[in-house]
């Protein structure tokens, strides 16, 4: 029940952002992609409660632990994704990614 409420809330948030950004066809995919990051991480198994059993995240963690002799290295891909899954993207990270994405989209839009 908690996961469906989270998903419903996230979809509602994305829908609100899409309505606001719908005036720009270039910005819309960037906004949706940024809003989708927490949902994708959760679907992979990187949750706030930890790595979900029998998920892609669990398989990644197992492979990383085997490769590192029994533990997941700090700063590894698995550790970073788990951190993002547990805390989400910070406001500064969203701002930076949004700025970079908008700049790239502006350059691409010049050619179309």
From TrEMBL:
Transmembrane segments: 25-51, 63-85, 91-111
Localization terms from the record: Membrane
GO biological process: apoptotic process
A Pfam family the protein falls into: Ifi-6-16
Protein's membrane topology: Multi-pass membrane protein
Amino-acid biosynthesis recorded as keyword: no
Domain of life of the source: Eukaryota
Main location: membrane
Record keywords: Apoptosis, Membrane, Transmembrane, Transmembrane helix
A single cellular component GO annotation: membrane
PANTHER family attached to this UniProt entry: INTERFERON ALPHA-INDUCIBLE PROTEIN 27, INTERFERON ALPHA-INDUCIBLE PROTEIN 27, MITOCHONDRIAL
Family: Belongs to the IFI6/IFI27 family.
Protein name as annotated: Interferon alpha inducible protein 27
UniProt organism field: Homo sapiens
């Amino acid at each position: 029940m908690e996961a469906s409420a989270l998903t419903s809330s996230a979809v509602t948030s994305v829908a609100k952002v899409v309505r606001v950004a719908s005036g720009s066809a270039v910005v819309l995919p960037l906004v949706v992609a940024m809003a989708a990051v927490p949902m994708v991480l959760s679907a992979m198994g990187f949750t706030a409660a930890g790595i979900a059993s029998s998920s892609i995240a669990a398989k990644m963690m197992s492979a990383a632990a085997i490769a590192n002799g029994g533990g997941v290295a700090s700063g590894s891909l698995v550790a970073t994704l788990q951190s993002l899954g547990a805390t989400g993207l910070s406001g500064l990270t969203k701002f930076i990614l949004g700025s970079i994405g908008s700049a790239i989209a502006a350059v691409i839009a010049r050619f179309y």
